[in-house]
Amino acid sequence: MQSTLTKPARKSRNAQEWEQRPNLPDTHYLDTRVYTDPAVFAEEMEKIWRPIWLPICHESEVPNALDFRSTGTFSNTPLVVVRGKDMKIRTFLNVCPHRGNVIVRAPSGNLGVAEPSGNPNNMTCMFHGWQFDATGKCVEIPRERAGYQERLCKGDVGLREVRTEVAHGGFVWVTLNDDAAPLAEFTAGSFELMASELDTEPLEIFHYQKSIVKTNYKLWHETSREFYHDYLHYHNRATGMLQPGYFDRKYSVFPNGHAATGLTTINYEAYEASTGERALTFPGMPKNGWKQLNIFPACTYSLRASCLRVSVMTPVSENEVLIELRGLGLKSDTPQEREQRIADHDTIWGPFGRNLHEDLLVVQQQKIAMQPGSGSRYLLMAREEDNTIHDEIGLRSYYDEWARRMGRPASRP
Length: 413
What we know:
By secondary structure, the protein is of the alpha+beta class. It has helices at 15-19, 33-36, 38-49, 144-148, 183-187, 195-199, 217-222, 234-241, 335-349, 356-369, 393-406; strands at residues 29-31, 54-58, 67-73, 77-83, 89-93, 108-110, 123-124, 131-132, 138-140, 161-167, 171-175, 203-213, 251-253, 259-265, 289-295, 299-304, 307-317, 320-330, 378-380.
């Protein structure tokens, strides 16, 4: 029987029609003010970012006693990660309690190296010479007794330690909330998807790059939470989308806003510039396999054939985000294996790779199109394909968690 339903003729829309809310559930679209409103951004920092866990570096970046790495997290909070003489990794607020100066100014190094403003083994504030050891204890205040008498002593002014756990492939995870649930409760079983690949043997970083990108942090993270945009990437179309089984790949959704895409196989030989089959892999990972895990609100583990890429975002403002990209292989790699992993990684994700520049271009164009007054109002995330690869369940699960933490849907920010 022929349907009697008729659809309106296709046409462009006038201003009134353009401004109308989509005829969809609140969960299936959003208001662009979630990307542009500074008040929304400030609220996100408190309600979303302060309670969560985030990986800020890898243990192989501080391999030796007294190694450090200074970094930051949301809202320009300066942090320093230090491996103590006891080989434990700790994280501190990188702020002197005396007069608020940044203590550790170098991006990385070892506290055993003497510098003009400080002694070996300690973190020294160049302003007035206060010193702190690798456990955060204040160990030196110049002219302490003369200035403070009995009113204050070194024991009163240790550094603010930030809760830290090393997990999931050796990454250093932190939370600014002393009362947050343990990391395992936050990740909610999502890492079981790639536990054998990440935790069977130690990993080691071989690539690091960072960029300040003029876009909202959520727009960048969204490029990892939906694969409908594989149409953007010729390399992905050739090696994945046109291959058998691509459209059967499914999303898994976890508590706390995390989402994963299951295992598939990439046919690299289908790309005309391919250098051949990629034999290297990770423990438990089939050759040329690919799986991906997105951790709310700003972290992606992408395990693709011989390479692991971990992307972490640090919001700077509603209009800017710091993106840090790390490539990792096995610590046990031979020099030849490491060279191959680096080449494979850079082909896809390096500064001149097949994919990275395309995603960076799009998210900045999105932000330009969404500026207040541009006319952009509502965005859709309404594709439903039984949770398969072009379903937008990855976006919806993100904004379900966003709504839970913010107390309202992203369609009505």
